[in-house]
Design brief:
Shape: globular
Number of strands: 4
Largest sheet: 2 strands, antiparallel
Low-confidence stretches: none
Bound molecules: glutamic acid, aspartic acid
CATH class of the largest domain: Mainly Alpha
CATH topology of the largest domain: Growth Hormone, Chain: A
Distance between the termini: 26 Å
Order of helices and strands: HEEHHHHHHHHHHEEHHHHH
CATH superfamily of the largest domain: MFS general substrate transporter like domains
Strand order of the largest sheet: 1-2
CATH architecture of the largest domain: Up-down Bundle
């Protein structure tokens, strides 16, 4: 048995293997840590776009709408891009458990900064804290879920599904609590609640990790040697200085404007995953079978980018649509636009068990991984075509019945359930073993790329252009879905037995 296998066994042996719905006790800790982290993230996201474009007299920052929508996308992109830094730091310097702890602290501080009335500079400080914090916490807390089960444990996939429920439960209640308080009492109060949520997550983590997680997260998988440390720190130091000089020159000379920054994130969104694929493919540690699987993963990754581009616009374009285009007095109640953000996670919670049942029932007859991805894209495309209809029927000045939005959020979730849980497990199966520790970050890079692209395209959206906007994006997703479906048997061949 190799050292790594030995280490893995020791970790599993140190985690009480029962105690949370028939799952290892550690899942309780991870579930609630991530529940509260997602509560703070999605709570903040439910009010962020309004905070940015509401006028100063209404407590907002007074940005124009299109800038606000682009910033939310950039933000979302960086939050998942920074996962590669968080994954690397955990793997090579301090281990996942510390990464989760430091990440939680940075996130909490980020929300705290926003909870005081401030200016645009403070807003950007908070953004940096939350981007770095989430990069440390999110991929690492997810990868500890994998560590608490032995490789042959049949509860593993179910464990990930329970964890996924935790994510969506946090995402469900956040807009109702943070959203309601933020929109009715004041944005800063809302952000304050997000900070409290992260504090609760940290408390759960710190108070229960010793007992529930044992050694999980405490071992540095592939520590830097003394010589490597020196080299890495020198390179990082030089890079930081160069970057600082570059920024110091670029801002006053007008080279680094908001527009160029958006373009830069767009480029990074594509360049980072592409380099990842090249490095994995060319690594001497990657076997021939693994190379073939990387080829299979590329179309799936592209499909995933297209899917998240639409899903994540639920928090930007559709949030704007909820605020500006929708009747908010409905059935005798006043609906807060932020509440629409609860619909996606609500439908996930309600429908995930149905899908799990469906896959089990279909057994061997269930669609293959590329076919499921193709369905994911199909539903995503349809969700945009559906929201084009109210303008087609009633023109783009009349306020729209909120049930249209509900329907659109429901349809995208049908796709999400075909693609998201499947994608995560497919990533862990298709990535080369030598890169397995970074697979979580790799998967999140598809979302990062999607939101980087969104930042470029959201400016084409206005109520006047909405039919064209939803039509082109929805139509593209459907065309890609059909292509993927036709390529599915070929892709399966490249997967070399992974199902
Ligand atoms: N809604 C998912 C989450 O917050 C999105 C992340 C992903 O790209 O899988 O976990
Ligand atoms: N469904 C998303 C995720 O899985 C949550 C959301 O968009 O609110 O976390």
């Amino acid at each position: 048995m190799s050292d790594i296998d030995n280490q893995k066994q020791q970790i599993v042996a140190s985690v009480p293997q029962k105690g949370f719905f028939g799952h290892p006790k550690g899942l309780f800790t991870l579930f609630f840590t991530e529940f509260w982290e997602r509560f703070s993230y999605y709570g903040m996201r439910a009010i962020l776009v309004y905070y940015m474009y509401y006028e100063v007299s209404k407590g907002g920052l007074g940005f124009d709408e299109s800038t606000a929508l682009a910033i939310v996308s950039i933000y979302g992109s960086l939050v998942y891009m920074s996962g590669i830094i968080g994954g690397w730091l955990a793997d090579r310097i301090f281990g996942t458990s510390k990464a989760v702890f430091y990440g939680g602290i940075l996130i909490m501080l980020g929300h705290l900064v926003l909870s005081f009335p401030g200016n645009i500079s403070l807003f950007f400080v908070s953004m940096i804290l939350i981007v770095l914090g989430t990069g440390l916490l999110k991929p690492n807390v997810s990868s500890v879920v994998g560590d608490i089960y032995s490789p042959t444990d049949h509860r593993r996939d179910a464990g990930f599904s329970i964890f996924y429920m935790g994510i969506n439960m946090g995402a469900f209640i956040a807009p109702l609590i943070v959203g309601t308080v933020g929109m009715n009492v004041g944005f800063h109060m809302g952000f304050g609640l997000a900070a409290v949520g992260m504090l609760l997550g940290l408390a759960v983590f710190m108070l229960t990790k010793k007992k529930n997680l044992g050694l999980a997260g405490t071992i540095v998988a592939n520590p830097l040697s003394q010589a490597e440390k020196k080299k890495v720190f020198t390179t990082m130091g030089i890079a930081a200085v160069l970057l600082a000089i570059l920024v110091a020159i670029a801002i006053p000379t007008g080279l680094l404007t908001f527009k160029t920054f958006i373009a830069l994130v767009g480029v990074l969104g594509i360049v980072i995953p592409t380099s990842y694929f090249i490095v994995m493919y060319r690594s001497p540690k990657t076997t021939a079978v693994e190379k073939s699987r990387i080829i299979a993963y590329i179309p799936l990754f592209i499909a995933s980018v297209m899917f998240w581009a639409i899903q994540e616009q639920g928090a930007t374009i559709l949030a704007n649509y909820a605020d500006k285009r929708t009747q908010l007095e409905f059935a005798g109640i006043h609906i807060s636009p932020a509440w629409f953000q609860s619909l996606n996670p609500l439908f996930i919670i309600l429908l995930a068990p149905v899908f799990a049942w469906l896959w089990v029932k279909l057994g061997n007859r269930q669609p293959s991984i590329p076919q499921k991805f193709s369905f994911g894209l199909l539903f995503a495309g349809l969700s945009f075509l559906v929201i084009l209809l109210p303008a087609y029927i009633g023109g783009h000045s009349a306020l729209v019945n909120p049930l249209w939005l509900v329907l659109s959020y429901l349809i995208v979730v049908l796709g999400e359930l075909c693609l998201s849980p499947v994608g995560l497990s497919a990533t862990t199966k298709l990535a080369p073993v030598a890169f397995s520790a970074q697979t979580m970050s790799l998967w999140f890079l598809s979302n990062a790329a999607a939101q980087a692209i969104n930042a470029q395209i959201v400016r084409f959206y206005t109520p006047d252009t909405e039919m064209l906007y939803f039509g082109v994006i929805g139509g593209t997703a459907i065309v890609l879905s059909v292509i993927l479906f036709m390529l599915a048997p070929k892709i399966e061949g490249f997967m070399k037995g992974v199902r």
